[in-house]
């Protein structure tokens, strides 16, 4: 597995935040987990809701937990809600099955982590996550 | 952030109860949490259901956790039920996504807490919460 | 069972707070539950820790859950820690087995609720709870 | 209450990491929460254990939850283990009661957040947290 270094994680977070600022998104929270589902970095902007970090974490962790992007998790939720309910329990309630959770893949397509962003619309959250991942030289897998 | 003092909290609770009595609502439970999501005051009237305090708490806490009023949480629940299910888990099941949870905002619009009321219809619960918040000189944000 | 009315609960809380102020205790949180373990009233003073309400609740609820005062729960904890660990699980982690949780008994000795106070030393928390219960005309059972 | 801005949080994290590098500590995880107990920033270095973020988070969150530094939580754990077990439950198992959790206080002494660091010895973790807090112009309260 390609190691996801903290240096790369910092680039992802910085570029995602820069994208959000450029597009004048609402203040966001950004979480990056590695292939083990371990948090490597979290940044939560000023004037955000109490649970912003947890919501963003549930997007990132949920994607790595199941191995698919957040858009696919949302599709599961609509088509087979009982499956997503089960996954919620299996992840100990650390699952936010909506867009804005994006897998990080290396050049060979291997899963090396995920980004979760929350604060603006789910679609915009996802755009910022993709921008961060691509700026760091990786491939973004939104689950679309 | 404006501190929500106990003195203000007492005014909110007293005035919400006074409104409910004036309108002959069924007996209610009232919970006020501050911007940290910490309970500052709870009052549950006689002859109420076993879980009245928890239901009211889930309204107040859920609003602060997500940063929106209960009416918006109910909208989320109808439009994206999987998102509200996820929020239920992320709040450790302390979420009641229906009207009657109302954000308390100060003069600048900053979020300083929330009121949750349960016992009568959700619409009436909300009216009592708004009455209490406004009587204390704050702005009520129902999420409408 | 004697009903524990909200009127009595208010007297207990007011007198417990008055006692704490008279003795210059640190700011406290006070929770009263009835014989069902249902919260009837909570008041948390200004400048208290994030979890003050939960700690006080765990004292009150734990006493009613097991039917003994907090001082007895602490004795259990010292003599049979595995039993208190089990009770923690059985109460869904709503147990604070230290002094400051005091049973409310009516004239016939029947259990009608409990008070939990947290904020100063456990011994002082207990004194305030006893003062409130006795001022309302009930008997305080500390588990001593 | 003084707001803990992300700008200040970044300074705390950067300076804590710089201190750890200067002293050749093992790789660490750093978490900063605000007065609400909400995560504002997490950074976990390369080559750290799977649960490094959670351990550091439990130090920071636990301190804010109870309102004391990690060294005091450890004292509680030694003198009254049942109380710390209870706090573990009340925090939904988000409590690491050892040194390395340090309260952030503003000039007036008000609690505005906490830092949790894990990775080297608890004593060294604490030194890095203090270095970060003081470099940002705040007072560090270790609970000693």
TrEMBL record, chains A, B, C, D:
<dbReference type="InterPro" id="IPR005624">
    <property type="entry name" value="PduO/GlcC-like"/>
</dbReference>
<protein>
    <submittedName>
        <fullName>Heme-binding protein</fullName>
    </submittedName>
</protein>
<dbReference type="InterPro" id="IPR052517">
    <property type="entry name" value="GlcG_carb_metab_protein"/>
</dbReference>
<dbReference type="InterPro" id="IPR038084">
    <property type="entry name" value="PduO/GlcC-like_sf"/>
</dbReference>
<dbReference type="Pfam" id="PF03928">
    <property type="entry name" value="HbpS-like"/>
</dbReference>
């Amino acid at each position: 597995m390609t190691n996801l270094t903290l240096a790369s994680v910092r680039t992802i977070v910085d570029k995602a935040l820069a994208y959000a600022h450029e597009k004048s998104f609402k203040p966001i929270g950004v979480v990056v987990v590695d292939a083990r589902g371990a948090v490597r970095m979290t940044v939560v902007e000023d004037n955000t809701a109490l649970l912003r970090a947890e919501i963003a974490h549930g997007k990132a962790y949920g994607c790595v937990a199941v191995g698919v992007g957040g858009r696919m998790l949302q599709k599961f939720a609509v088509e087979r809600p009982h499956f997503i309910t089960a996954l919620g329990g299996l992840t100990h309630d650390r699952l936010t099955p909506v867009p804005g959770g994006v897998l990080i893949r290396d050049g060979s397509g291997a899963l090396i982590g995920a980004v979760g962003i929350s604060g603006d619309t789910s679609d915009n959250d996802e755009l910022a996550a993709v921008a961060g991942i691509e700026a760091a030289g990786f491939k973004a897998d939104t689950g679309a």
